[in-house]
Amino acid sequence: MEKQEIFMENYLDKYIKVTFLDNLHVIGMYISYYSFNNTIVIMPEEDHDDTRLLIPLSAVRTIEPWPID
Question: Could you tell me the CA-to-CA distances from 46 to 13, 54, 56 in Å, in that order?
Answer without folding.
Answer: 12, 16, 22
